[in-house]
Predict the 3D structure of the following.
Amino acid sequence: MTEHDTIPNASVSLTPEQFAHLGGGMIAYVRPIKSEDAQRLFPQIGDIQPGLDLFALLSADGTPIILTDSKDAAIANAWEHSLQTVSLH
């Protein structure tokens, strides 16, 4: 077996710090968010109309990147910055 082979169902232990940095600078995810919750992630937005359905683009470690009213705009911004988007379930 070489270092590039994988073992099915093998588990790997990561520290919380190592896990937080996985995909750093390469992976981002789009998260639907209500405008009422946007202030917590994006404190610089100031007052925002309640009840809006928005989308946040977040880095792999959860750092907020952009807030938009369109999922497509969030994904386009990720691509523009060479970030691979992933789905979270």
